Fold Dipeptidyl peptidase IV.
Amino acid sequence: MTVDYAKAERFLPHNREKLVFGDRVEPQWLADGDRFTYLSRRRTGKRFLLVNPAEGSVTPAFDHERLAKSLAAASGAAVDPGDLPFESVELDDKQVGFEVDGERWTCDLGDYTCTSRGHRPGLHETPSPDGKWVAFVREHNLWVREIVTGAEHRLTGDGTADFAYAKCPDASSPRVLFERLGVQGPPMLLWSPDSRRIATHRLDTAGLPSAYLIDAAPLDGGRPRLRTSHYPVPGDAKVPTAELVVVSVPHGTLVRSEGAPLHAEYVPPEMAGMAWSEKGDKLYYYDTDRFFRRLSLYELDAATGDVRLLAEDHHEKRVDGNPSGGPPISRVLSNGDVVWFSQRDGWGHLYLYAAEGGEPVRLTSGEWVVKEILHVDEKNGTVLFAASGHVAGDPYPRQIFSAGLDGTGLTRLTDDVLDHAAVVSPSGKYLVDVASFVDVPPVTSVRNLAGEVVVELEVADVGDLVALGWRGPERVRVRAADGVTEIYGTLFFPLDFDPGRSYPVVEHVYPGPQIHRVAPGFGDPSWSEVFAVAALGFIVVTLDGRGTPGRSKAFHDESYGRMGEAGATHDHVAGITELAATRPYMDLTRVGVFGHSGGGYAAARSILAHPDFYHVGVASSGNHENDLYCAGWAELYQGPYDKELYQDVNNSLLAHRLKGKLFLVHGDGDDNVFPYHTMRLVDALIRAGKDFDLLLIPGAEHGLFGYEGYVAKRTWDYFVRHLHGVEPPADHPVPDVPLDRQRLIKMLG
């Protein structure tokens, strides 16, 4: 057979916009809280549109031709009006603001004069809401600088390397990536809405054990360099803790929290759901015990440091404050009441805790899961939220609901079988709704709070995909290994799929347990690499076995203390076997598996635990030895350290079972999953006398930024050679994959 790498390359992330149009709407709200702009990406070009839901209108946000001409004259660079060099704007009735390569511009909407406003603050500086200050860290202390005068003010003076202000824990700080990009990481802090205070923490890392990296090929040449990180692993006696502080600007009056220091093994408190009150006088933050068996919400008085417990949950295994792996989704109201998410009855639901105390009021109930609080209308006493479990035959698609804060009036605002991703306007009157399914391209509209469509915005155009021979994925439901539990997945097809042919099967795996792998909506973030592999003549499968989130707590807890099952690999084997029984085009004599990070662990685990089922595996950046992974993640999902319990999940113990072809990939600059994970598996494979392949990439960090094209091609080569049984094209160049700007923006905040 012949394989077409050029077609596979068209599915890589940077080429997505050339194949799919109108699939994304990211609203930028105007000051009135109802109107918004967004960048419409259509076949005819890109245009910023202004939406007025009250009038049901969609109009150009400004004159693109005039702005392009003026910007070109002012900047000296060519500007295409159909492809303006920015992706978001700040619009009012008089001017439009935007950034081009870090330089801020405004354009007067009267005469279309474009004026440079200088460069935005660097990544290492956090601007205040009023735009008058930037906060930054210097020599472990917190400083601010006045934007207009440039005057600097030191706010703290007792910071040291072991007790540093606004520092991100090393385990979650992409320091190697920052270094390779030539930037300094952002400070961990939160400005108050009135710009008068800064909430931050002082991180205690004194006496912590270290982990090490060798930069074998430094960017500037010279000798290899040693990198050292504070990196707690399961069972360590001490882990990083964070003391909360509130600092006034510009005088530096410091108020220390009267609460206990917070565990900060992985995530700093500012990234774990911390929020200011609207007036800026109260700070809300979450606290857990080390093993996440308790989740507490506290209120901190910014003037005194006094703390007050608002709500709390306990569980003998683990408390999950969010079924999707993010910060807790609870909400503090202006009167002090709290809308609180809890799985205390076995399902994820909302409860109202009154400010004056007493028993919480249950707002939702049933065998379904609240996924997100979208808006709380305090005046009318309702909460708007997304929930799954209401679509017959599939527990994952999200629907939109409202309910009263008194526990009555549950109302379903969307009533279909699609997955709905929604954003509510600041005014709370409208929501921007993106409705899709794995095989149904997105339709984006504006709805009112009765669920009625008031403006239709975009219908995704996938004509170029279809012209390539693309076929929409198939949502599948199969039985787990117990023969009873239903699990769900997605089937992806080769280009110009012919059901009369026989195709090798490749599974793309990510086991969680913090997120589930198989999103029900169209175009999840991993689709690019999945479709690229499918384009080379493979059936690609994704599945969520028992132990992944998004359903009942009991379903999720199947993986607690049993991470070695890697998202229930035996469920995956059972599911793929069931699929092939009714799909003769799936050739189970040729099965591969690949994944990254936790997926790299699961890919290796799959081929080692099931050597007669999986024949080829590609495992990149895998955490193969979880007793040496970050304590803040491993102890959350595996539980307190027990030597036997943790060693049982290490892939090196199964090295002797390898029968197929295994390709291990790791960056030697990975400061999240350190390369020793892969090297210990390599050591075990060598001791077991096994043949395998290894790619160690100098300087590459966990996300393999800058090397995605090379790793993609090597992965394609491996599957083509060992599953198709043919040599890959020798003359196809490595895909030139540019740094994903949007991915970097999301990572760096």
Observations:
- The first strand starts at residue 28 and ends at 29.
